[in-house]
Write a structure and sequence with these properties.
With 217 residues, the protein is of the alpha/beta class. It has eight helices and four strands; from the N terminus they run E-H-E-H-E-H-H-E-H-H-H-H.
């Protein structure tokens, strides 16, 4: 195939259905570049699942890491730490990761690049595509615009994740989204305290489990 594509990937569940959608039209390599993921054991867990899936689908996996990645990522996002998810902080984070992807693609003779991010219902596909296109123009390498969640893309990723037994995270990845996830769980637990005893116990248990999961990463 002449369409050699570099696919930025955030996790195995998101990759699963996106790879299905792209495999017929592209010769794709998987690109892992996610210095935003926190804490370290969460980073390693997601990468481990990606490696497991990469062996199943038999596609090349490029793990791009540098010693100053986290410091650089923090520098471009910290001013927007209090922004809600999906706002300026997320735009800067996505731009940071996609620019590294595009640079690698251009320097290593790929024809095009894209990302699995748009398969998530929590990601604004229009925003992701605008960022990708801007970087494409800056670096003179094509970006594949897509909304991979469409046509049941997200539902298919859930189905495949269950089939393969993938770990599915309950927050985006960064320390800010982790803290937001914990805050939501604690707020849910607080609301549960005002419910009748039996309902409160059930809601409190669910909130506690969610909070613990977020802390575990």
């Amino acid at each position: 195939m002449s369409n050699k594509l570099l696919l930025h990937t955030c996790c195995a569940p998101c990759l699963s259905s996106v790879e299905e959608q792209l495999r017929a039209g592209y010769s794709l390599d998987i690109f892992w570049y996610n210095p935003n993921i926190y804490p370290e054991h969460e980073y390693e867990r997601r990468l481990s699942e990606l490696k497991r899936f990469q062996e199943i689908i038999d596609k090349p996996l490029i793990i791009h890491e540098a010693t100053n990645d986290l410091e650089e990522w923090t520098a471009v996002t910290i001013d927007f730490a209090r922004d809600p998810e999906g706002q300026r902080r997320c735009r800067e984070c996505i731009s940071f990761r996609l620019k590294k992807t595009a640079e690698f693609a251009k320097n290593n003779n790929y024809n095009i690049f894209t990302t699995t991010l748009t398969v998530s219902p929590h990601k604004n596909s229009k925003m992701v595509n605008m960022i990708g296109e801007k970087i494409s123009q800056e670096l003179d390498i094509p970006f594949l615009q897509a909304d991979f969640k469409k046509n049941n893309g997200y539902l298919r990723s859930v189905e495949l994740a269950k089939y393969y037994g993938f770990y599915r995270q309950d927050y985006c990845g960064c320390i800010y989204s982790m803290n937001e996830s914990i805050a939501r769980a604690l707020a849910k637990e607080k609301r549960a305290q005002s419910l009748p005893t039996s309902a409160a116990a059930s809601a409190s248990s669910a909130a506690t489990e969610a909070s613990a999961a977020a802390r575990r990463g």
